[in-house]
Write a structure and sequence with these properties.
The protein contains seven helices and two strands; from the N terminus they run ββααααααα. By secondary structure, the protein is mainly alpha-helical. Helix 4 runs antiparallel to helix 5. One of its GO terms (cellular component) is plasma membrane.
C-alpha cells in the first residue's frame, strides 16, 4: 500500500517523509533555540550582580506589586536565570517542549526590557547596538511562541476535543434516527400487520 500524499499530486510528498523531516528539524532546532537561554541563564545564576543594576528598573516595580517574588533584584535575576536553564534543558531534550518554550518566553520579556533599553541610550552607536539586541530577542520570542504551539505533527488537545464532540453528535444523531425508525408510525403499522392472522 502506498503512503498518503500531501500537496499537489504532481509534486506530492508522502506524509511519512514529511513527518520524518519535521521530526529531524525539531531534534536539531530545539537545542539550537535553547542554547542561548542555557548559557545566558547559567550566567545569571552564577553572576547575578553583573545583571542586577541593569535589571533594577524593570524588577523593582514588579516586586513591589507581586509579593511572591524575592525583594532583592539579584535574587529575581537568579530566579529568572534558573527558569531559563531548567526550561532550556527541557526544550533542548524534547521533554515537555511546549510548556518549556512558554516558560522561556515569559522570562525573555523582562530580560529584554531590562537589558536592551535602546530608547534610553544617548550614544547613537550604543542605541543601534541595543536596538539590534532588542529585535534579536523579539525574533527569539517569536521562535519560542512557534515552539510552544508545535504539537509534533499530532493533533492538538483542542482539535481532538472538537473532533470527539463532532463524532459524539454524529453518533447521537444515528441513535435518534434509529429510535424514530423503530417507534415511528410505519414501524408500529408493520408490527400490527405481523400480528394479524393471514
Amino acid at each position: 500500500m502506498l503512503p498518503p500524499l500531501v500537496g499537489n499530486p504532481a509534486n506530492a510528498v508522502p506524509t511519512d517523509t514529511l513527518e520524518r523531516a519535521m521530526s529531524l528539524l525539531r531534534v536539531l532546532g530545539r537545542p539550537m533555540l535553547a542554547s542561548m537561554f542555557l548559557t545566558g541563564g547559567l550566567n545569571s545564576v552564577r553572576n547575578p550582580k553583573e545583571v542586577a543594576p541593569v535589571a533594577e528598573p524593570v524588577v523593582q516595580p514588579v516586586t513591589d506589586r507581586v509579593s511572591a517574588l524575592p525583594d532583592r533584584t539579584e535574587q529575581v535575576v537568579r530566579l529568572n536565570g534558573a527558569v531559563q536553564v531548567v526550561a532550556g534543558l527541557m526544550l533542548a531534550t524534547g521533554r515537555m517542549p511546549r510548556p518549556a518554550a512558554l516558560a522561556i518566553a515569559a522570562t525573555l520579556v523582562p530580560t529584554t526590557l531590562a537589558g536592551h533599553r535602546f530608547w534610553e541610550a544617548e550614544d547613537p552607536s550604543e542605541r543601534a547596538e541595543q536596538r539590534i539586541h532588542f529585535f534579536k530577542n523579539m525574533s527569539m520570542l517569536g521562535g519560542l511562541l512557534i515552539a510552544a504551539d508545535d504539537t509534533g505533527a499530532r493533533p492538538s488537545v483542542v482539535w481532538r476535543g472538537s473532533h470527539a464532540a463532532r463524532g459524539l453528535r454524529r453518533d447521537a444523531g444515528l441513535v435518534r434516527r434509529s429510535v424514530r425508525a423503530a417507534t415511528g408510525p410505519a414501524a408500529v403499522a408493520g408490527r400490527v400487520r405481523a400480528k394479524l392472522p393471514v
